[in-house]
Amino acid sequence: xxxxxxxxxxxxxxxxxxxxxxxxxxxxxxxxxxxxxxxxxxxxxxxxxxxxxxxxxxxxxxxxxxxxxxxxxxxxxxxxxxxxxxxxxxxxxxxxxxxxxxxxxxxxxxxxxxxxxxxxxxxxxxxxxxxxxxxxxxxxxxxxxxxxxxxxxxxxxxxxxxxxxxxxxxxxxxxxxxxxxxxxxxxxxxxxxxxxxxxxxxxxxxxxxxxxxxxxxxxxxxxxxxxxxxxxxxxxxxxxxxxxxxxxxxxxxxxxxxxxxxxxxxxxxxxxxxxxxxxxxxxxxxxxxxxxxxxxxxxxxxxxxxxxxxxxxxxxxxxxxxxxxxxxxxxxxxxxxxxxxxxxxxxxxxxxxxxxxxxxxxxxxxxxxxxxxxxxxxxxxxxxxxxxxxxxxxxxxxxxxxxxxxxxxxxxxxxxxxxxxxxxxxxxxxxxxxxxxxxxxxxxxxxxxxxxxxxxxxxxxxxxxxxxxx
Length: 470
Ligand code: ADP
Ligand code: GLC
Known about the structure:
Layout lengths: L1 E5 L11 H14 L7 E7 L11 E11 L2 E10 L2 E5 L1 H4 L11 H19 L5 E5 L6 H6 L12 E6 L7 E3 L17 H5 L2 E3 H8 L2 E4 L2 H6 L10 H6 L4 E3 L27 H13 L10 E8 L6 H13 L3 E8 L1 H13 L4 E4 L4 H10 L2 E4 L9 H7 L3 E5 L2 H6 L6 E3 L4 H14 L3 H12 L8 H11 L4
Parallel strand pairs: 1-2, 1-6, 2-5, 6-7, 7-10, 10-11, 12-13, 12-15, 13-14, 15-16, 16-17
Antiparallel strand pairs: 3-4, 4-5, 8-9
Helix pairs in contact: 9-12, 10-15, 13-16
The protein binds adenosine-5'-diphosphate (ADP) and alpha-D-glucopyranose.
């Protein structure tokens, strides 16, 4: 099949979280699918932070997009199947996402540019695969502004929700900049009357199929508690809503192959894991003490991730138990301040690194004994799967994709999002550490099947379901 896969992040070029990893690994897995070997073209913005484009081919030198009254000139470069939309006025900024007044335009342009690119290079996709709110206008664009073009006659759309907490809601004044003012009647009318447009909702209304990144999250988002006001729309479309668990890219995340860790290891011989732990502690300026477990955290420090529960629990655990903690992450000040204060209060037990660092993330996965993810909600979560693969036993809140991957055989999942729940899971993990039961948990995790090759057939089935003649 021919697939146009459009995403606001693609690793290693631009990544703030799991979407970047998925947008790199899923297209790669689809291309090497044993059954088919699909032709997958990936499109992303050329942010100023993107490196490694030496040798990229200019595909489109200049293309003028008219989004209503707004004219935008873009060009396109290609490298290894990834197309970079160049528009310095929109993407030449320090961040991937911004709170600038034209945020809606930055991603409306990405969607327009991806479809205009297909026209320029004569690529007739069977599937346009959009991801999250940033590319959610594509289904409606195909049904309206691009509907005249026979190139797209067979094209069907799939929209993947990676996080329903971000919907791309803007004042109705942004409608003109989407280039869809002529199709205003296709937007949700009540919202429009209230003066709003919602990119994600627009995608949910017009995509041929909707997927999200775990079966549990697919159920959760159809409830008022987790649906972030879109649950009713999702229930209406439940016959085309699918939960497909994300996979992991084992070329990047495998302890026996990982080039970013100082010592490689496997289930047969875990000695390299202990060496990684020593290296991690040394780099974090913490002492290595035989038999003392090390908990790792790698996370965006956002409300979603549930670290509020740690405010009361971690100081108690650290003062009573022999345990160490290494945290890597950036985000909201209350969480950054909390971990920084924790490191000052427990200087021999806690280290906090406020940074985004791919190598440190790998070292924490390899060198920790346990991995903490108390997420309030978690559409899928990749870090717990990386942890399982690295023999690092996850401690999680049983929600979303965490509920689908962590269980009593490979880790610790607490049921209720409260301090007692987290305390129970931590106590239980600490009491089992070093026992034969612990080794069993590690082994079960490392033997789990989390690779994308296990998941790709689910996407193939969904593509076939919506694409005519396939
Ligand atoms: P989310 O997408 O909600 O952030 P995931 O668990 O799906 O959560 O994916 C997070 C990804 O981002 C993982 O690859 C993780 O290693 C990475 N990550 C998060 N914070 C950092 C950081 N500070 N440094 C390096 N990598 C990070
Ligand atoms: C989102 C979610 C995360 C998921 C990732 C990739 O960022 O928060 O749970 O793993 O997307 O799908």
